[in-house]
């Protein structure tokens, strides 16, 4: 009898250790858009420091559409998007929760020698009418345009808000980047390159963020921005995901968002 009780106690202890280890190593992926990935990773790091209940990962971009498909099919618990849901997506039971407004920044390789442009000059660059940075007072260097695919959220916002972009035909002499990270890295590595994407403070490291019509992306009157949102099914019951969603509304998350040059979106 004593031996049986000892074995039962040991078995219970082993199970408790295994369960505790499993709880400590539980991973929560937030999949989707590349827009605002630095912001969301910083929020995740702050959450893990404060809560410590799960290892929150923000993996490389699969696009807003990829995030919506993953959440809608149950392959992911949480997703991230940089566009509103369609009526059909919302009707499928997916919930949209905006957390941050990210200015749409234009970035150039520092060798270009230009730090400010007008909105008209941007139109001329992206249409191909301006081909050398020396025409803007910069280096004698070919302008290499990096763009995004037509359905990209930042490009969509630029077409809706930036002067001259609504019907702009972007030059065929441009490189299409399929993710925000690819666009940023291309501009970082290619002499003469210019690209665009959601603003965050890390962009200022090794790149030049352009002023447009005298306004920096963090200025209140900067004309263009993208909204970063989390998505999940309305039937969500996962405790770690629910804890992260609550944290995203908290002041600590708002402080992280502000520190990276974006604006919190209050619930």
TrEMBL record:
Keywords: Signal. InterPro entries: PBP_domain (IPR024370), Phosphate_ABC_transporter (IPR050811). Residues 21-203 form the PBP domain. The keyword S-adenosyl-L-methionine does not apply. Residues 1-23 form the signal peptide. The keyword Disulfide bond does not apply. PANTHER family: PERIPLASMIC PHOSPHATE BINDING COMPONENT OF PHOSPHATE ABC TRANSPORTER (PTHR30570), PHOSPHATE-BINDING PROTEIN PSTS (PTHR30570:SF1). This is Phosphate ABC transporter substrate-binding protein (PhoT family). It comes from Bradyrhizobium huanghuaihaiense. The lineage of its organism: Bacteria, Pseudomonadati, Pseudomonadota, Alphaproteobacteria, Hyphomicrobiales.
């Amino acid at each position: 009898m004593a031996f049986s009780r000892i074995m039962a106690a040991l078995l219970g202890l082993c199970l408790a250790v295994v369960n505790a280890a499993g709880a400590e190593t539980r991973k929560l992926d937030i999949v989707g858009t590349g827009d605002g990935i630095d912001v969301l990773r910083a929020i995740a790091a702050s959450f893990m420091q404060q809560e410590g209940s799960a290892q929150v990962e923000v993996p490389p971009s699969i696009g807003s559409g990829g995030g919506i498909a993953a959440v809608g099919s149950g392959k992911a618990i949480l997703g991230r998007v940089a566009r509103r849901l369609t009526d059909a997506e919302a009707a499928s039971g997916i919930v949209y929760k905006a957390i941050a407004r990210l200015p749409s920044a234009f970035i150039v390789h520092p060798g270009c020698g230009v730090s400010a442009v007008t909105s008209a000059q941007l139109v001329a660059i992206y249409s191909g009418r301006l081909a050398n940075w020396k025409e803007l007072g910069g280096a004698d260097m070919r302008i290499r345009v990096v763009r995004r695919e037509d359905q990209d959220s930042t490009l969509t916002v630029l077409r809706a808000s930036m002067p001259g972009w609504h019907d702009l035909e972007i030059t065929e002499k441009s490189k299409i980047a399929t993710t925000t990270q690819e666009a940023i890295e291309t501009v970082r590595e290619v002499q003469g390159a210019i690209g665009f994407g959601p603003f965050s403070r890390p962009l200022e490291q090794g790149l030049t963020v352009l002023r447009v019509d005298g306004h920096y992306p963090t200025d209140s009157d900067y004309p263009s921005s993208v909204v970063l949102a989390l998505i999940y099914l309305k039937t969500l019951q996962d405790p770690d995901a629910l804890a992260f969603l609550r944290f995203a509304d908290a002041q600590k998350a708002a402080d992280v968002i502000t520190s990276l040059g974006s604006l919190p979106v209050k619930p």
